Amino acid sequence: MSKHERWNTLLELLAASGKLEVEEAATALDVSAATIRRDLDELAEQQLLVRTRGGAVVHGVSYELPLRYKSTRHAPEKRRIAEAVADLVAPGDVVGLNGGTTTTEVARALALRFASGRTEAPGAAAAGPALTVVTNALNIAGELAVRPQIKIVTTGGVARPQTYELVGPLTVGVLNEVVLDVVVLGVDGVDSELGVMAHQEDEASISRLFAERASRVVVVTDSSKMGRRAFARICGLDRIDLLVTDTGIAPETAAQLTEAGVKVLTV
């Protein structure tokens, strides 16, 4: 197991329980206690956890793994979700994407689907971009900026290092001036009563504005987020048109969402 893989696993264990003991982690990862101590020391230096005498605890009250350490979690499910969403987007659409690992996969799937550009019908006006993407995520903008067939629009704002998302009044100013055909939202929690949520209130408010500017709202999330609550509410289920997730979703959860008027697509 590489150091990167060990760090991913350690952070996931820590996120699940809130604390971690060196000996427990050494057994789980099948490595020496000395290796775990070094790993925890290095993660503490990056302010990703707080070292204790016998292990580590989460850093802060609201714990959120940085995007770079979440990219390998449920990766096959996220790719399937992304491919399904890309198939729902029509040529010429204006698509909003907030930040996150699943929406990053959606961006990649869109880039592949529209790689050859848009083909216009005979006699049509000069071709515009195959797709227009509006995003507040720096990593998504960076990946799509090199795709000439996709028009990429980035919001202004202050960058959050955890998720690479731009937030704040500058972000709001740009989103208030655009109209979206569809927005694809990554979320941190889905609850049948409260709706969809994010860890951070500033990101939640931007995602809410994305939803307000769109004709259709698509939520993308792997099934591990179902029934989970996060600190800040984005919007209620009544604002969501479609939720795309993997087949791990519990049947009763899918039924509750459907009853609330949300179409559920499992892949």
What does this entry show, briefly?
With 267 residues, this protein is an alpha/beta fold. It has 10 helices and 15 strands.
Task: Provide the fold topology.
Layout: H1 3-17, E1 19-21, H2 22-29, H3 33-45, E2 50-51, E3 55-57, H4 67-70, H5 75-86, E4 94-97, H6 101-113, E5 131-135, H7 138-144, E6 150-154, E7 158-159, E8 166-167, H8 169-175, E9 180-186, E10 189-191, E11 195-198, H9 201-212, E12 214-220, E13 232-235, E14 242-245, H10 251-259, E15 263-266
Parallel strand pairs: 4-5, 4-9, 5-6, 9-12, 12-14, 14-15
Antiparallel strand pairs: 1-3, 2-3, 7-8, 10-11, 11-13
Task: Explain what this protein looks like in three dimensions.
This protein is an alpha/beta fold. A seven-stranded parallel beta sheet has the order 6-5-4-9-12-14-15, with helices on both faces. The chain has a three-stranded antiparallel beta sheet with strand order 1-3-2. The protein contains ten helices and 15 strands. Helix content is 37%, strand content 22%. The chain is globular, with a radius of gyration of 20 Å. The longest helix is centred in the N-terminal third of the chain and has 15 residues. Helix 6 packs parallel to helix 7.
Mean pLDDT: 89
Indicate the proportion of strand residues.
15-25%
> How many whole angstroms does the radius of gyration measure?
20 Å
Structural class: alpha/beta
Q: Write down the overall geometry.
A: globular
Strand order across the biggest sheet?
6-5-4-9-12-14-15
CA-CA gap between termini = 30 Å
Distinctive features:
single chain, 267 residues, alpha/beta
